[in-house]
Amino acid sequence: MIRRHLEKKLRLAAKQYPVVSVTGPRQSGKTTLVKAVFDKYAYISLEDPDSWAFAMEDPRGFLAQFHRSAVLDEVQRAPELFSYVQGIVDRTDRAGHYILTGSGNFLLMEKIAQSLAGRCAVLHLLPFSKSELGGRKMMDLSRLGRVPRAKEPVSIGNLFDVMFNGFYPRIHDKKLSAPDWLANYYQTYLERDVRQILNVGDTEAFARFVRLCAGRCGQLLNMSALAADCGISVPTAKRWLSILEASFLIVLLRPHFKNFNKRLVKSPKLYFLDTGLLCYLLRIRSSDELRIHSARGAVFESWALSELFKNYYNRGNEPDVYFWRDSTGHEVDFLVEQGQELIPIEIKSGETVVSDSTKGLDFWRSLPGQDKCRAVLVYGGDSSYMRRNIAVTSWQDWG
Fold this sequence. Notes:
Elements: H1 6-14, E1 19-23, H2 30-37, E2 42-45, H3 49-57, H4 59-64, E3 70-73, H5 81-92, E4 98-102, H6 105-115, E5 120-124, H7 130-133, H8 159-165, H9 169-173, H10 178-197, H11 203-215, H12 223-230, H13 234-246, E6 250-253, E7 269-272, H14 275-281, H15 287-292, H16 296-314, E8 321-325, E9 331-338, E10 341-348, H17 359-365, E11 376-379, E12 385-387, E13 390-394
Parallel strand pairs: 1-4, 1-5, 2-3, 3-4, 10-11, 11-13
Antiparallel strand pairs: 6-7, 8-9, 9-10, 12-13
């Protein structure tokens, strides 16, 4: 089993809270992780029809069968349980009493907010990070913009194979064909989460909507244009985007609003959290095709952002990541907020750093008070070094 970085935070949370919830996309490894960490706990999955029926018909009796602590998997399928769990943990006041997992963040978080606020630690598990696949420690975010720390060489393949295959655990564990597995995964997502749970009647239109989103990866989101291209209303487009966000398939990166005497862009940028799924939706058929595809830069940018989000989530933190762009077109791909400091990050998929690669970082440093800020350039080459006080970071050392 590949060790997950979230394990440390998960064990700590179970010593501090009576309930710990682990959410994330389907097949991100939640069940494997909690069963390994809490191997002495009773385990039951609400995906099992008999268990689900028991929980729905007699929630008090269902919970009474667990004499000590329990892992309740896919618990959002039995929302009636949450109020009873609240009553039990209020009486026992025992840390680590219940471990809950769920794929539907939109349903699970609503129930936690209603019944378990203040009693539940909420953690998110995304598919593998690059450092998990390579058996390395997480990137130290406090060192962003400093000389990249040398790491032991661990090969997980070339850049384009890594991005094309994506990071869902089953692909790597079972050595499966990524396009075949992702096609089945995506169809299951449409049929189960979208049609059954959220009652999206026209899954064909929704599937078209998702592919249109993939084509806009790394771009400013124009909601009206997206809705018009899909033939749906703007409110429907907003609702469907919220579904994709809550499913951990996409993230809408918000702009940083600090005003440097420029008119700033206020629309978010859209990214996918798994590059394998993104390549599947873009109909990229191989890693060789990705290497020369027009979306290569957007896929690489999406991968770099997903590694940042995984790093934050694996530490139990919410990402402090934004982008910056003014009305004249000056842009910084990502801004990481660390206290009062803003660290600009540029993402370039090329294997060679040229003078134009740091244009966004150079402009940022020309703004008032930013001339000495730490800065990072992540690129597709193999060497990491300092260049004009910019930490030029290989994709190998990112994540």
